[in-house]
Amino acid sequence: MTAVAPDPLSLALGMPKAELHLHIEGSLEPELAFALARRNGVTLPYADEAALKAAYAFDSLQSFLDLYYACASVLVTRADFRDLTVAYLGRAAADGVIHAEIFFDPQTHTARGVPFATVLDGLEDGLAEGAARWGVSGRLIMCFLRHLPEEECFAALAEAEPFIDRIHAFGLDSSERGHPPSQFARLFARCRALGKPVVAHAGEEGPPAYISEALDLLGARRIDHGVRAVEDAAVLARLARDGVPLTVCPLSNTRLCVFRTMAEHSLPQLLAAGAKVTLNSDDPAYFGGYLGANIRAVQAAFGFDAATWYRLARNSFEAAFAPDDAKAGWIGRLDAYFAAAGVPVGR
Ligand code: ADE
Ligand code: ZN
Fold it and tell me: How many domains is the chain built from?
């Protein structure tokens, strides 16, 4: 009797993968938010978890960010940042994530008087626990808030520099419209001079020109989102030609109304153009789920075959900021997983 090959969805859910676009503050579930609020004597502007969840009806990136920054106020102590990170890594591991490059927004915390070291120590405690419990490797990407002036971001970088060996890369997030990458060219030149790879959110709500700016003026090695690249054939062709990874977050894009429905998402066009797409969850506590939920939503809309899922996972490892031998090891695990499932995959 020949074994029946698993269906593409089961394969995709179980395959080893990397997550490269995850805001740790965006993994704050309502239950943990209220537990931390009680622990720290912080008052959230919502009566209870149900009221908070009811507020998760966003019509734009900004409508989400307002809530996201308000909820982040419950994160105060080293233990809070640890608990948050452990909770994320447990959920990610259950979805097959074996490597995670995690964004954090220190300005959101230092502005409230939480020391930079408290944030970093807590996140690292969580990474260590995630590695010990689930074998997930984790790295930290420090993001600058683009709605703030570049001088304030320089001050944040100065605060980070004593800890530079513990920061893997730098990124740019927050309100995209009206805050083009060009406003941060000097800041990112300094980050690169410190020897760090840089990434930037671009082409999420902003135009394709912001993607070009992120590449040309910031030296971005990956583009976070980039889903509006399909609106400019030259930008899309460049991304494909140069193999620039895109960290696409499907549920985020539909929840923030970048696309009205998943069926209208640009993901199939990006893949058809040959862009190096990866799938990620962005702010999973707010957008309806973690990587597994994103995979389910994408599969329900597009019905990808096993080869496409293999490509997406392989892209996630190739796009990671990790040594070549680590990447080769992860891709070896991916190949072994597909081989064991009896699914031949072309490279
Ligand atoms: N910060 C957290 N999530 C974000 C997103 N989707 N875009 C920009 N900044 C963010
Ligand atoms: Zn993001």
Answer: 1
